[in-house]
Design goal:
It is built from 23 helices and 2 strands. About 80% of the residues lie in helices and about 0% in strands.
Amino acid sequence: MSTASVAAPASLVKSRTAKAPDPTVTDPALVKRAVKAAALGNAMEWFDFGVYSYIAVTLGKVFFPSGNPTAQLLSTFGAFAAAFLVRPLGGMVFGPLGDRVGRQKVLALTMIMMAAGTFAIGLIPSYATIGVGAPILLLVARLVQGFSTGGEYAGASTFIAEYAPDKRRGFLGSWLEFGTLAGYIGGAGLVTIMTALLSADDLTSWGWRIPFLIAGPMGIIGLYLRMRLEETPAFAAEAEKAENNRPKTPLREMVTGQWRALLLCVGLVLVFNVTDYMLLSYMPSYLTGQLHYDETHGLLVVLGVMAAMMIAQPFVGALTDRVGRRPVIATGCAGFLLLSVPALLLIREGSLLAVALGMGALGMLLVCFTASMPSALPALFPTKVRYGSLSIGFNVSVSLFGGTTPLVVTALIGATGNMMMPAYYMMAAAVVGGFAVWRMTESAGRPLPGSAPSVAGRHAE
């Protein structure tokens, strides 16, 4: 027995050696509110993503009237890409802040910034009205969106993970990506309806503003939901251990002290986001630009695949609670490694059925990641640095690999002339993801690192 043990009271020694930490009993109603509030923020982010992607041609005419359609589109997507450049900066600010002052406060702040940035785009005068000030204001709004997004996903997944009972963390976390898909479908679907109902002149003069202005009411609702939430039990317990209820961890420790977990995070996020952006962002333009597929049919196929993914999402999330995160993520990696080429060959065949089958196969494989990552990624890090370290690892990986996927694949096709490059790129990502899965520790059904066990309240479903 150590000297410290001899000096300690017998009752304290007994509690240290024999008694496990008291479990946290979660309130089912509070957990549901936490999931809804977190998922709504993700839905807002991807609503904007869907709107911006599918109305890009119109935005080019409004803000970049160069007379060259290609230059207009490139300028519009340049402003879109700028948001990815500041995401890591947002992560480095909001992540450590969330570990210091609390998850709930920071998530309320990111919600305000996201809604304000999106709403502001709908109010910006056109180039014809104020000249070069218009694209400058668009860029500023995009930078605000990107900066806030840097703290959104990591914070939302951390918030749900720290509220969820250990045995239901996969199921509850899967609703975060359900919100992603719902937001994207809502944004892209709204643009599709507007394009069908409005003339080209009406869409260019005023119609394009409507989807962005909708972000205002959505943001108010989301902020209301988030402000009603209490701080997560895990953070509250960590705060009690620190002086002045403010756990302080240097940014350097969030990186150097968690380097192994960060590398695993980057690898997992790489395969998650490369395949995600390939399917949801690049494939519509691949169908129309490279395969000369009908634009409307291509969009409807993508929306149909996302709707199917939404249905599968909670079921696969629940599956990860039963069999583990690692087997489900590994299945997705193996599937992309083996089926990317056959799926792309089906898509290239060109018929509506073949395209739907190929895209559907990739979509179901992607669900292995979308349903697992919101619960797997927060479990890589201990409570005191979870928000900060996850924000850094997630956003660095998204900015370097996920957001650049359409650009890199387009460049590879242009350089090689090989139309199978999308498949090869997904296969390479699957190899990286497979190695990360091999090295990660299973977290299903176990307490989060640094937290007490969490169990569901009596009335949990």
